């Protein structure tokens, strides 16, 4: 017989602490603590070291999770699978995605998705910071960070070509850089990562080698749309995705510079839990996004101004 409290124990292990497990299970922290205490009493073993910080597993706790965690997960997956076969995809789906890229590439695909799956409630989180999907209970993430979490798997989703752009007004006033070393004489608009707090370096390909350049200037932003707006106002030069800048280039607002030094496209990934079973709502969202990944949407100058 499987104790009812075993599900709560596994939730605490997977979510890192009692409060996070309570949020995941939709109960109070006190209820989670009581459930774990009942399981410890039933097994006559202490499962967690309780401290002022996050609880850590005891040796008995490690052994219990090792022997039962995957079995309980498989059982839950089978129950969900049986339920999903009888119902259309439904429920709340949390998706974390980069701000500007999300609005440019993902958001245009959302109306068709919601029309096809009206019982799914999308919770889209536009945030340039890299989140811990498992800890925060996010179902799907999109971004360029490598898959370093063993509990996640990643699929190639979109190729984003970085380009260096400046306004025609800026180039008329300051000249056009021809090679990376020329950038020392220009005002470079840098991007600061919301995750690390560090400025992003610019990569170029020169003589078959990748070189890194640290942009220097009098403006640093942490949002791609702000960088685009700054370029449009003639403040300086910045690097953005070609999908963001194409419309502005074609209309003559921007000029694409140092094209011979551009690197290969950056691979954007879509990542999610590596469980053997994916809920129907997650699977259909991933399938829809993969199907429409190449339907590029060019963000125009009017949209940039509206965003800000």
What does this structure look like?
- With 308 residues, the protein is an alpha/beta fold.
- The chain has 3 domains: 82 residues, Arc Repressor Mutant, subunit A (Orthogonal Bundle); 112 residues, Periplasmic binding protein-like II (D-Maltodextrin-Binding Protein, domain 2, 3-Layer(aba) Sandwich); 100 residues, 3-Layer(aba) Sandwich (D-Maltodextrin-Binding Protein, domain 2), CATH 3.40.190.
- Helix content is 41%, strand content 22%.
- It contains 12 helices and 14 strands.
- Strands 4-3-5-14-6 form a 5-stranded mixed sheet, covered by helices on one side. It has a 3-stranded antiparallel sheet with strand order 12-7-13. A two-stranded antiparallel ribbon has the order 1-2.
- Helix 1 packs across helix 2, helix 2 crosses helix 3 and helix 9 crosses helix 12.
- The longest helix is centred in the first third of the chain and has 28 residues.
- The chain is elongated.
- It starts with a helix and ends with a helix.
- 28% of the residues are buried.
- The C terminus is likely disordered.
Strand segment tally: 14
Count of discrete alpha- or pi-helical segments spanning 4 or more residues: 12
Integer tally of domains:
3
Q: Specify the CATH architecture of the largest domain.
A: 3-Layer(aba) Sandwich
CATH superfamily of the largest domain, by name, is: Periplasmic binding protein-like II
Pfam families: HTH_1 (PF00126), LysR_substrate (PF03466)
Organism: Marinobacterium stanieri
Protein name: Transcriptional regulator, LysR family
GO molecular function, one term: sequence-specific DNA binding
């Amino acid at each position: 017989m499987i104790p009812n409290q075993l599900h709560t124990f596994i939730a605490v292990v997977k979510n890192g602490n009692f409060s996070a497990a309570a949020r995941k299970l939709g109960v109070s922290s006190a209820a989670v603590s009581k459930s774990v205490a009942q399981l410890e009493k039933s097994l006559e073993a202490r499962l967690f070291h309780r401290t002022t910080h996050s609880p850590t597993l005891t040796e008995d706790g490690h052994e219990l999770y090792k022997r039962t965690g995957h079995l309980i997960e498989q059982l839950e997956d089978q129950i969900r699978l049986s339920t999903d076969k009888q119902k259309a995809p439904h429920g709340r789906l949390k998706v974390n995605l980069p701000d500007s890229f999300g609005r440019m590439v993902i958001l245009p695909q959302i109306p068709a998705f919601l029309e096809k799956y009206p019982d799914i409630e999308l919770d889209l989180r536009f945030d340039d910071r890299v989140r811990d999907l498992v800890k925060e209970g996010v179902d799907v993430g999109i971004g360029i960070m490598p898959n370093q979490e063993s509990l996640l798997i990643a699929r190639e989703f979109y190729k984003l070509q970085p380009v260096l752009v400046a306004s025609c007004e800026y180039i008329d006033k300051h000249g056009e850089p021809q090679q990376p070393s020329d950038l020392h004489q220009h005002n470079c608009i840098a991007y600061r990562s919301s995750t690390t707090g560090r400025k992003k370096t610019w990569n170029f390909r020169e003589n078959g080698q990748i070189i890194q350049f640290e942009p220097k200037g009098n403006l640093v932003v942490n949002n791609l749309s702000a960088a685009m707006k700054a370029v449009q106002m003639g403040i300086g030069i910045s690097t953005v995705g070609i999908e963001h800048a194409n419309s502005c280039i074609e209309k003559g607002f921007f000029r694409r510079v140092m094209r011979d030094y551009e690197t290969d496209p950056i691979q954007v990934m879509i990542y999610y839990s590596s469980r053997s079973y994916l809920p129907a709502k997650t699977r259909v969202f991933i399938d829809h996004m993969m199907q429409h990944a190449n339907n590029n949407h060019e963000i125009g100058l009017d949209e940039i101004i509206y965003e800000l």
